[in-house]
């Protein structure tokens, strides 16, 4: 005797009904934009390694309005990803201070300070070796 498996019907627009799910889907879709930008950067590395002519062609292609839009969209998606991840950090990491947990605002502020410090360190490294 076999039983029919339960299959819940899910409409294709399930995420449009709730603003929480819409934000979730935008966050998940942002990885596609970031992935496209990463593929573009990898193509630039391949062009740099192959010849100066290919490198010049790749650099020239970056002035295309489509590539500029992809870069801007990737930047916005990366910022959105960072902000939403930092907002979830207090829910993911519970730091005990004596009898109570560290306030969420302190954890989020620490994340932004760490982001600024790492970004500054990378900029200094680029400035030193450029």
TrEMBL record:
<dbReference type="Pfam" id="PF02300">
    <property type="entry name" value="Fumarate_red_C"/>
</dbReference>
<protein>
    <submittedName>
        <fullName>Fumarate reductase subunit C</fullName>
    </submittedName>
</protein>
<dbReference type="GO" id="GO:0016020">
    <property type="term" value="C:membrane"/>
</dbReference>
<keyword id="KW-1003">Cell membrane</keyword>
<keyword id="KW-1133">Transmembrane helix</keyword>
<keyword id="KW-0472">Membrane</keyword>
<feature type="transmembrane region" description="Helical">
    <location>
        <begin position="29"/>
        <end position="53"/>
    </location>
</feature>
<dbReference type="InterPro" id="IPR034804">
    <property type="entry name" value="SQR/QFR_C/D"/>
</dbReference>
<feature type="transmembrane region" description="Helical">
    <location>
        <begin position="65"/>
        <end position="86"/>
    </location>
</feature>
<dbReference type="InterPro" id="IPR003510">
    <property type="entry name" value="Fumarate_red_C"/>
</dbReference>
<keyword id="KW-0812">Transmembrane</keyword>
<feature type="transmembrane region" description="Helical">
    <location>
        <begin position="107"/>
        <end position="129"/>
    </location>
</feature>
């Amino acid at each position: 005797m076999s039983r029919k498996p339960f299959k819940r019907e899910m409409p294709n627009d399930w995420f449009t009904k709730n603003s929480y799910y819409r934000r979730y889907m935008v966050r998940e879709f942002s990885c596609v934009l970031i992935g496209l930008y990463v593929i573009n950067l990898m193509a630039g590395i391949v062009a740099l390694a192959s010849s100066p002519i290919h490198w010049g062609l790749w650099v020239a292609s970056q002035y295309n309005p489509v590539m500029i839009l992809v870069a801007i969209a990737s930047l916005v998606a990366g910022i959105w990803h960072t902000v939403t991840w930092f907002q979830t950090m207090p829910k993911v990491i519970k730091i005990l201070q004596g009898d109570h947990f560290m306030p969420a605002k302190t954890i989020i502020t620490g994340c932004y300070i760490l982001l600024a410090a790492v970004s500054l360190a990378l900029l200094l490294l680029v400035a030193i070796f450029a």
